[in-house]
Fold these 4 entries.
Entry 1:
Amino acid sequence: MPRQTTFAKPGEINRQWHLIDADDQVLGRLATQIATILMGKHRPSWTPHVDCGDFVVVINAEKVALTGRKRLQKTYTRYSGYPGGLRTIPISRVLETHPERVIEQAVKRMLPKTRLGRQMYKKLKVYAGTEHPHGDAKPLEMASAK
């Protein structure tokens, strides 16, 4: 008799907390690793229509590594919809003012653009320094993937 495929139910998921140190890690590779954990694809019980991912705490966002000439060339662009409303901000300025946003944006753009993706994104916590308020959750330290 063939085995039945089991799907994870929203109430049956045991979420874990993962702590990732972004010090000297390449931005894109780090974001891929984080997005995989947020979606739950690292689990054998992954189900496409259920948010079965874990919480992720990222520290040292200010020390993330960028390869090549990205620190000089990469920009974030947004448009207000009005004439003359195009704004481009270089990544170097974003890293100086709000370094958390660099990792948040990289991960957010790798998640699904649906209600489920927005729910997954809420489980991401990014901090510029080494301090974070999630010590009570006892996050598991992730090995760096340099």
Entry 2:
Amino acid sequence: MARAAPATARSLVLQAERRFKRARLYFGHGTDNARDEAVFLVFHALDLPFACSDAVLDAPLTAAEVSKVEALVSSRISTRRPAAYLTGRMWFAGHEFEVNDDVLVPRSPIAELILDRFQPWADAEGPGRILDIGTGSGCIGIAAALTFPDAQVDATDISREALAVAARNVARHRVDGRVQLHLADLFPPRERGAYDLILANPPYVPESERVELPEEYLHEPALALFAADEGLALIRRIFAGAASRLTERGALVLDAGGTWPEVEAAFPELSILWVELQHGGDGIGVISRAELARMPLQ
């Protein structure tokens, strides 16, 4: 009787992919298909770089290595937790961040604008002062600081637990001299001054949609996902308070996700530029200070 071929990284990826498809998992937290999710988890369990050779992919694995992969793959299926929470890491704008279930899994399309240096909306030399509202893991503010090494960044969150994660990521990326974290409900104290750019990825999922979401989303902090007023409660407050905290030529970059049509309908007086994204996603709006000045002060 022929002996079974030894397990390899390649064979375990293919096996995990098949199992994920059978289990009908939802992919939307860093990957969008079963194959990429399988690669992410198998490579993490085996501590492999994503750019590894065929020789490494096809090398026989030990029983202990196979067990590590099995534990991670089985946990993904049985718990429906996003892979980022199982591994404790996710990439955003080309940088790796620590994540846990105190913060959203980084996935905002604002990453594309950061990599494009916010052109054509920011000055060519880049913004000098940036505010990141609802920072969570700190990924948006930190990625902006890494892109603009002369910028000073304030980052706010209402969750102490989220700010603890953000603080570790600030230290990890060595931007603690330029990224200041604030426990605050949207905006930091006014004495912090005005900003050239405000970046906001607030909760925008209507409470009514909670029962419709895939189980994976329910592992994320509800405080960071759901908002009252059909998802518009926090966005209203950001619009009302942003103008007085922006410099004359400043702008707000808002991630409204799938709620963007409701935002546009609710604020017909605002001229919001909805960005045509090159790498997927939608709901990223850019609003100038002049437009925001039409809103009543918070």
Entry 3:
Amino acid sequence: MNTHAVKAADVQRNWYVVDAEGKTLGRLATRVAQVLRGKHKPVFSPHLDVGDFVIIVNADKIRVTGNKLNSKYYYSYSGYMGGLSSVVLSEQLRRHPERVLVHAVQGMLPRNRLRAVLMKKLKVYAGATHPHAAQKPEPLEV
């Protein structure tokens, strides 16, 4: 009996579109991370990029449960003294709703060199339209 090892050239990539309107942030992020990584495919290999492209639309209409809108903070540090800045989730959703979803999905991917490759396949848009109609994306159920 032989073991089949998938090669990078043999990977078939699909495009999926997800409507984030009314979806819970964490549940949507876990499903998107699975598809980006390729865990839904029978040829999954942890050391290769076998995942698919994911387009998320309506990022500004994402749902957050509990008191996270006022208690969850996003931090960034410039490297200088006094350079720590923080933004509350409600403000981040108002200004840059795409960044909230990118940050959530990025936190659910492995922390290695593969993460940057996987994140390039994620496209997030605040509105209902996207410029990837030529790829004929299929709807992804979450």
Entry 4:
Amino acid sequence: MTQRPAFHRAFRRDLAELPAIVAYTDAALATSALSPAQRQTVHLAIEELFTNMVKYAAGGAPTIALEVACVHGGVDVTLIDSGVERFDPRTAPGACTDAPLPERQPGGLGLLLVRRLVDALRYDYVAERREGRTQFRVAGPC
């Protein structure tokens, strides 16, 4: 199976862009054979990663790029954040889920969920451009 061309678009570094991101991702996956559950996983992972980029890398470029590509074995999604410090979501501390609720510290649940839901999570950083690329794969027929 050959790879179809990737969809590529930049979105403003603004949480108000989330509905447009969902619409864009739906269009990119319109002809894929991913199940509704797999599509929901893609949406959830993008939302969590994009939200973290907006909230915690405020000094970055005014836009965050999003690529969606159907590949053999599933869909690859890449978020590209420029002008930022290194932040590898694979190694971020996970939330403590064993402690009683009153003892838990907020934060970390979204990234923990992403790491558990996607089939592969990759991060690359180009120091000269201060550019982080977070890529994940959801396996399935695409």
